[in-house]
Amino acid sequence: MKLQRATINAALCFIVLLTAGPACCDSQPTLKDVFAKDFLIGAALNNAVVSDKDPNAAAIVQRHFSAITAENVMKWAPIHPEPNRYDFAPADRFVAFGEKNKMFIIGHTLVWHHQTPSWVFKDANGSDIGREVLLERMKDHIFTVVGRYKGKVKGWDVVNEALAEDGRLRKTRWMNIIGEDFIAKAFEYAHQADPDAELYYNDFSLDTEKEKCDGAVAIVKNLKSKGLRIDGVGIQLHGGLDYPDKESLEYAITALAATGVKVMITELDIRTRSWGYRGADINRINRQSTTDSGAADDETQQKLAQKYAELFSVFLKHKTDVNRVTFWGVYDATSWIGGSPLLFDRNYQPKPAFFAVVKTAQE
Ligand code: XIL
């Protein structure tokens, strides 16, 4: 009887140890070390991570990542909610966290059609404003935000998601009011605001839709033909268990790199639900729309590990062109999509996908 109780106690201790916080994992390899010679390895951070509200997540970031992106706090709506009011406190905390930990800090994002208040496009009477007024507002916003973090934020996602799936420019309010050169103007202002900052164009489905990728190539060529600075293109890479396939991902990396810019994977996650819309438009994708009751099953997690391994083997093959790989989130519980799409589970523990990714570097 006593022996049985001792065995049960030992088993309980073992379970507690297995589910304990990150302290258990100090002996594991770190992502930033295993990929140190290949590319920066990053994560998008939410407010809780940088403000001591999620210390276990912060510990993972400090241990594994060399680059950080603001998941939300630098978008127009949170940082500039009203015409004459900026709310810098959350973004300041994000930047302070990156500086303290000597990380490469990426600002996301200056010009986008989502998470931008409607006042930006309206006058005091609620009517649409014209091109010159909108350009003035764009310039003022970019100068204020980029100017504040000059020298600290090393790279900016200047324009986000300007392309439709067919490779043409989306008919957003930026495009409709200003015209096609809203992209060039945004890059021009960002460069004026911080001449040393790297400037990127960022979009989703470049890795799956050839025409959309060709549209991004055209954007880079257009900016370069005007003598404007562009340093890189971000392939967001919100993937799934069976996409992108290797060939289309390699097409995107090589086509973009051929324009002379750096290629970065900027928002990596792999959704476990295998049906439904594949893009990453935030009007169509969120935790509810992608949730998956079988996400944490062994079989699904093995598939996730295989897909991550395949993607990382492509990144490594193209490491001279791929300069950073950033995950969109730190661990499953706070991912913007449902299921179990990242390398760390809801208890902050590394999953099979983590070990599969590490193995690609060691091979
Ligand atoms: C997402 C954030 O992760 C969510 O928290 C937010 O509610 C919506 O936006 N493409 C992008 C990111 O460029 O900014 C989006 O982030 C995900 C898709």
Number of helices: 14
Beta-strand percent range: 5-15%
What is the residue-mean pLDDT, rounded to a whole number? 94
What is the distance, rounded to the nearest whole angstrom, between the alpha carbons of the first and last residues? 49 Å
Number of strands: 9
Strand order of the largest sheet: 1-2-3-4-5-6-8-9
- Poorly predicted segments: 6-24
Radius of gyration: 21 Å
* Biggest sheet statistics: 8 strands, parallel, barrel
Strand/helix succession: HHEHHEHHEHEHHEHEEHEHHEH
Shape field: globular
- Helicity level, as a percent range? 40-55%
The computed structural class is alpha/beta
Bound molecules: (3S,4R)-3-hydroxy-2-oxopiperidin-4-yl beta-D-xylopyranoside
Description:
There is one protein chain. The protein is built from 14 helices and 9 strands. With 363 residues, it is of the alpha/beta class. The longest helix has 20 residues, at 298-317. It is globular and about 55 Å long. Helix 11 links the parallel strand 7 and strand 8 (262-271). Helix 7 runs parallel beside helix 9, helix 10 packs parallel to helix 11 and helix 13 (298-317) runs parallel beside helix 14. The termini are far apart. The protein has helices at 2-19, 31-34, 47-50, 55-64, 76-79, 89-100, 131-148, 173-178, 182-193, 210-225, 246-257, 287-290, 298-317, 352-362; strands spanning 40-45, 67-70, 104-111, 155-160, 198-203, 232-235, 238-240, 262-271, 322-327. It has an 8-stranded parallel barrel, surrounded by 6 helices. (3S,4R)-3-hydroxy-2-oxopiperidin-4-yl beta-D-xylopyranoside (XIL) binds at residues 71-72, 160, 236, 267, 280, 282, 336.
